[in-house]
Amino acid sequence: MMIRRVLFSLIFSPLVAFASPWSFFPQKSESQKELLSLIQKGAYAQSLMFWESSLSGDSFAQSSTGQAMYYYLMFQAGARTTALEKLLSLNTPHHIDGSMRDLWREAIRQNKSHLVVAASYVKPQWKGFLTLELYQKIQSKPIFAVDQKATVKKLSQLASSKSTPSDEKPWYQWQLAVAAAHQDQNQLAKNQISRLLESEQTLIDRDTLYITAARIAFQSNEFAEAIDWYQKVSKGSDLWLVAKEEIAWAYLRNDEPNKTISEVHTVLSPIFSSISGPEADFLSAFANLMICDYKSILSVTNNFKERHREKVSSLETLVASDKSELFGKIMSVVDTKPIQLSSFSQYIRNMPRGFQRDTFLMDHMKYRKAMIEEGRILSQIKVANAPSLTKEAARRAETAKKEVYLRLQHLARTELQEFKTMIQKLHLVEAEVIQRLHLEEVRLGQREKIENPVPRSSQILTFPVTKEVWLDEVDHYHAEVKDCPKLMRASL
Amino acid sequence: MKKLNWTLTLIAAFIMANQALAKDSLLDDMNSLGGNKKLIKMARDIDPNNKVRIVQNRLVDRNLRLELGVNYGAFHGGDPYLNTDQLGGSVDFHINPLFSVGVRYFNHSSTLTSEGQRRVTQAASARTLGSDTGRPDSDFPIESYMGVINFYPTYGKMNLLDFSVVHFDFYLLGGAGQMVLESGNSETYTAGAGVGFWFTQHLSSRIEARYQTYEDRAFNQTRSLNMTVISASLGVLL
Q: Which residue of B has its CA nearest to A301?
């Protein structure tokens, strides 16, 4: 019996290995055979053109497998987003032939960059077809309302439940950490972050976890711990500058204004002028107010105008109309260049800060780009329904453009509000300076140095700060400051 | 009177702030910041002179490290009839970034200067006429070795063609050793200065100018030679 089985597998397994993945495709007529030959040669665009004539009157074309195959050819011909969306709009994935399903799985696996734009079209019945791994990649992650008490309870259950797939757990732990921190359950939040850092998950990037851990420590008034976490954020991360600014706040709260001034000097460096926000200016002014360095405060408020005038003006025009020159330039980048931060380098200075971290905006930019490209491909393929598909792609590209504008407008408006708040605060700092400059103690008092010496070592080099900023000097500023002046009064 | 001043100042401050807040355009709000020249002057008068400096670690660690190098140099001055250059090797031990001690070996090669050549030709012509005068005598340096101490009191950094930032140190050096001449050995002393460039953790370079002295023999007489040696070297830090 055993020998018979071995012989059977020896004879038939090579045949199985060489079996065509297209065995489900009907080959009743010559034209169908010719169509299959084109597909096997990889001439997908051509095969789409012959599809209708080869399969006219054949029920296969209308079957779930037939439609899935048609969209597969479309996917391989380059209209990937459209094809994937069409596939996922089918209601009977379980009727699709197993070989076709495997071909689709492989195609999706190899073209992951196109998955994000199809996110909103995934129905639960596709989980079996796509496999859990691909389903999770396509499906957008559930986002919970962080300020609702029930959220913490629900997420705690999901994060600890044995029925939750292990791949999904990091997402729930992460959401739980954020929700718990929002609701001042700091210990719970810390525990989740620790678990995520200890695990081998890659869903939540480590720098995001570090900065979140730092923020939780900060809001627990554990500033030294917060600083340790902030310092773990890698220099390559786009959260690094944010971490620098927040470290500066942590030092200020820890009553170390000299260190705040050192850190904020990095954030306010001209090389970061296009990506640092107005709060850094306020922080610098406020830290200098704590040590009564009025000259530096007025220098900060004066420089504030120079640093941000162009940005504020651009944001105002962006909010006002989608006909603005800036929006036109942004869309031109979207339509012609890869959607990545470096493509926008010329306009980053004028765009809302941190726009690249906004997944909604970036997804819609990518979607618009895909639709333009696919509209072009579909019009070249000349399939029977090409005009309607091309028109649909153009319509979707236009809708995506509107979404991009609305999101940019929202981000610009939010940032302008931040500017308004910071300008108000800077006015108040100036008012405080006016008041203090008339105090006798300020004018006649003596200042004591706040101890923050440069470590004495032959390994340490010191250089003066000049207007020219060298990249290697960033993050190496060291402030030596004096405290507020005090009148020495005679005492008995 | 003092109280009145106080009140007026506070009122002025609040009016200023409120005026700024009441304006519609954010740009107008922004422009009203930091524009009070009188205030700036007052602030300048009580400037605490706070300092911000750049504090960096050395890019290349030079604590207890060996530097092996090869160098090429040329003598300027010394025997007027000789052009002497040298090819050599060096071993420096960096005790810390401020001090290093080392040994250097040089192999010298010399040719006659144009004046030396002229005198030799002239002497040869005279010899054909039976006169044995005017022949120059030179004591060719063959090789030398010396021990040196380097002191690196100041440092700097430079932008290397926008490719990287390179730290360098100016240094002073002094040393003594032996010069092997055609006529035998002679003591030699040197003192000078140079610049050491530390390109990477393992690659270095030096440009050096130093005074060197030794005694040679010409026409059976000893004489003291003083010269300047300019050299360049490439090294490996271990």
A: B34
Look at residues A332, A261, A318, A264 and name the one whose alpha carbon lies nearest to residue A293.
Answer: A261
Q: How confident is the model at residue A3 (pLDDT cuts 50, 70, 90)?
A: low
Cβ atoms < 10 Å from Cβ of A24: 16
pLDDT, position B23: 47
Q: Name the residue among A357, A349, A345, A391 with its Cα closest to residue A371.
A: A391
Which of the 8 DSSP states describes residue B151?
E
Q: If DSSP codes are grouped into helix, strand and coil, which group holds residue B146?
A: strand
The conformational region for residue B236 under phi > 0 = left, psi -120 to 50 = alpha, else beta, is beta
Rg of chain A on CA atoms, in Å: 31
- Paired residues of B141 in beta bridges: B181
Residue A453 has pLDDT above 90, yes or no: no
With CA atoms as reference, the chain A residue closest to B35 would be A302
B5·A301 Cβ contact <8 A? no
Specify whether the CB–CB gap between B27 and A313 falls below 8 A: yes
Quickly count: other Cβ atoms within 10 Å of residue B212's Cβ: 23
Assess A89–B contact: CB distance below 8 Å, yes or no. Answer: no
Q: Test A478 with B46 for CB contact under 8 angstroms.
A: no
A476 touching chain B per CB within 8 A: yes
Selecting from B21, B53, B96 the residue whose C-beta is nearest the C-beta of A464 gives: B53
Q: Any CB–CB contact under 8 A between A291 and chain B? A: yes
Place of tokens 């203090």: A436
Taking a contact as any Cβ pair under 8 Å apart, which residues of chain B between 6 and 25 contact chain A?
Answer: 6, 9-10, 12-14, 16-17, 20-21
Q: Is the pTM of this model over 0.80?
A: no
DSSP summary character for residue B201: S
pLDDT of res. B57: 83
Chain centre to alpha carbon of residue A112: 16
